[in-house]
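Every protein is a chain of amino acids, and every chain bends into a shape of its own. Below is the pair of lines this work produces for a single protein:
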Amino acid sequence: MALTVLMLAGLAVVALLVVQPLWRSHRRWRQRQQPLPSAWRRIVRRRVPQVARLPADLQLRLKGLMQVFLAEKAFIGCAGLVVTDEMRVTVAAQACLPLLGHPRGYYPKLRQVLLYPGAFVVNRPFNAPGGVVQDQRRALLGESWGEGQVILSWQDVLHGAAVPDDGRNVVVHEFAHQLDQVKGLANGAPWMPQAADRARWARVLQAEYDALQHRLAAGRGPEDAPDLLDPYAATDPAEFFAVASEVFFEQGAAMAARHPALYAVLRGFYGVDSDSWAP
């Protein structure tokens, strides 16, 4: 009798493991087929002009991705901020851009998006002279945690969305970190199934990262064109990937012209050709 109970329990567990992913996949398929509510479409048109630059098929795909994202991810207001549909939809429209080309599980580790009214202050340890570790207060626009949270400044979410071609987008930046953190610690090398792709990524990203650091160390004269990549990209490889992702989605044509190898590996990773999007 005990053996029978154990067998039945085992079968139940196996059935759950098989059925649950199928049910989730079916539920998401149904959500993607639903038209975006008219109020949400108006928010996207008003707040996220980047969407109008996408080809029609990608605009439709983005709206389906948004339906799933908004159904599965919780939004929490911080420092007295009351979260509205305008906030949720504005964040979702930008957060789903990196998902347009390849299915990535809708940021499988992410559970919550925390919104602050503006920049938020955190304490971070740093190595002071003499080997002493001290806390340092820093004001941040966004932060991504591998434990399931993205934290954003609503003011900077709005600013990043309002200017779709300046290469600065805090939402894309932090959600690029989320993709990097799927495998664990963010290190600028998000997971890719093919060894050849991983090797090419490592080669190109390291060369571009080293070149940026060299340009910054050498200094730039007034006759030099502004660098596409913000100096913050030189902080470490994880930040380089996140900053490069901002530029890829907002200034694809410029990146393809000035950093063709970097553009090519990002195009392969994200599965979209932002060079061809409408200006």
Notes: Residues 66 and 92 are 6 Å apart (CA to CA).
